[in-house]
Every structure is written in C-alpha cells, then in structure tokens.
Design brief:
With 104 residues, this protein is mostly helical. 58% of the residues lie in helices and 6% in strands.
C-alpha cells in the first residue's frame, strides 16, 4: 500500500521557513490566513498552487513556532513603516479628483 508523502517545511540559509517543493514561505500562508480568517479549505482557492495539506502543514509549523514567526512579522511591518516614512507623501483623493476635473 502506497502512502502519500506529507508536505514538509524547509529552512533556507537565512532561517526562513518555506513549504518544501514550492516558492511559498510559511509566513505568506500565515499572513493570508490572519487577514482572511479562513480555514485551510477556504484559503486553498486563493492559493491554488498549494494543497490543503500544505496549508495545514504551514499553519501547524506556525503554531509550533508562533513566537519566532510573530517576531518576524513585527520586524517586517516595522521595516515597511520605516520605508513609508522615507517616501514622499502621495496626493490625496481630493487632489487626484481636482486634477482629473482640471483635465476635463
């Protein structure tokens, strides 16, 4: 009787967790699930390159390494905020509408 291989997680040289055999980081699955609140079955159509089992394995890895991954998520969010602060502010909606109106 042949059994299906269980998806695994691999760590790259920087210690980032990836779903083995894919180009998907565990953190990507976690953030998608946190944003949507969906179950692995509900999440899978949004991530068709992953099986439900791969999503479950990623979430199980997250649960086993929650503190470490939450720290990484916080670090990444801080980095994004730092980048945003260095960028010039874009026009407001009102300014964009005024520009559009001026063209017509």
């Amino acid at each position: 009787m042949e059994t299906a291989a269980t998806p695994k997680i691999r760590l790259d040289e920087a210690g980032v967790a990836w779903i083995e055999g894919t180009r998907t980081k565990v953190i990507e699955v976690v953030l998608n699930q946190q944003w949507s609140g969906e179950t692995p079955e509900e999440l899978q159509p949004d991530m068709p390159h992953l099986s439900v089992e791969q999503i479950r394995v990623a979430m199980a890895y997250y649960e086993a390494h929650r503190e470490e991954l939450e720290s990484d998520i916080a670090r990444r969010r801080q980095w994004v905020e730092e980048i945003r602060e260095t960028q010039p502010k874009g026009p407001t909606r009102e300014e964009l509408l005024a520009r559009l109106k001026a063209k017509t």
